[in-house]
Write a structure and sequence with these properties.
By secondary structure, the protein is mainly beta. The chain folds into two domains: 73 residues, Roll (SH3 type barrels); 34 residues, no CATH class. 0% of the residues lie in helices and 50% in strands. It is built from no helices and eleven strands. It has a six-stranded antiparallel sheet with strand order 6-3-2-1-7-8, with no helix packed on it. A three-stranded antiparallel sheet has the order 9-10-11, with no helix packed on it. Strands 4-5 form a two-stranded antiparallel sheet. Strand 7 and strand 8 form a beta hairpin. The protein is elongated. It starts with 9 loop residues before the first strand and ends with a strand.
């Protein structure tokens, strides 16, 4: 399944409680169509005492957010953009690349 968001992308949340927050994608959950974004959609999780956390208690953790609520930020312009895909042939090898629809020169996004 091809997604418009990949691990390491900088995204902005466009709806929900965290609207307007920016962050980097830490993980993409493909089967659930969700992503975990650094510093966005924080929840408190109760933890039991363990070797690394003797006391136990509450820990702040990022929860997943649906991919439809995320929009990629163009590396060139720094503004939210939609993503397109096109086939590029280089050295006789065809590959599918993502590109920014708002950018004037339609450069590929890595």
């Amino acid at each position: 399944m091809k997604l418009h968001i990949k691990k390491g992308d900088t995204v902005i949340v466009n709806s929900g409680d965290c609207k307007g927050q920016k962050g980097t994608v830490l993980r993409v959950l493909i089967k659930k169509n969700r992503a975990i974004v650094e510093g966005v959609n924080m929840v408190k999780k109760a933890t039991k005492p363990s070797a690394e956390n003797n006391q136990g208690g509450f820990v702040d953790k990022e929860a997943s957010i649906h991919l439809s609520n995320l929009m990629l930020i163009c590396p060139e312009t720094g503004k939210p953009t939609r993503i397109g895909r096109k086939v590029v042939e280089a050295d006789g090898v065809k590959r599918l690349v993502r590109y920014s629809k708002k950018s004037e020169n339609k450069k590929e996004i890595k």
